[in-house]
Amino acid sequence: MTRWLDDAQMRAWLGYRRMRLLLDLQVSRDLAESSGLSDADYDVLSNLSDTDGHRLRLTELSAHMRWSRSRLSHHLTRMQQRGLITREECPSDGRGAVILLTDAGWEAIRAAAGHHVESVRRHFIDRLTDEQIRVLGDIADAVVPHLDDVPSRPAADRR
């Protein structure tokens, strides 16, 4: 039997969906205007910049971003053509690839980060009280571990 959402739950769910859509669009627009980077570019660069040696195996990056290796590989090719990342053969596995942040990629993420944070503050953080931020953090702590445990499956397998 379906457990339908009550009015308060529906308000919360629809509000979250609309907020996420509008917030993602605005922050993405600001990022592109201030740095020329897409959300995907920023995600790749920030993931690499947060690691020792600014490098990750393609499989690790793919798993963290929840992208297929094929999709990520195509995006990385475009980023490599722009000089933001480079690829090396994995020393422990000749079939694997290691993605490295280039000097240009490091400069791009450093230049973009401040503008990105200002956009997040302007359109989201500064709109909330300290209590709302704490509650949102608690909500994320409750939901994210569950979603991290849900196996990723190709769309064709979800039917």
TrEMBL record:
Pfam families, per database record: MarR_2
SMART domains according to UniProt: HTH_MARR
SUPFAM superfamilies in the cross-refs: Winged helix' DNA-binding domain
Residues in HTH marR-type domain copies: 1-145
Name of this protein: MarR family transcriptional regulator
Lineage: Bacteria, Bacillati, Actinomycetota, Actinomycetes, Micromonosporales
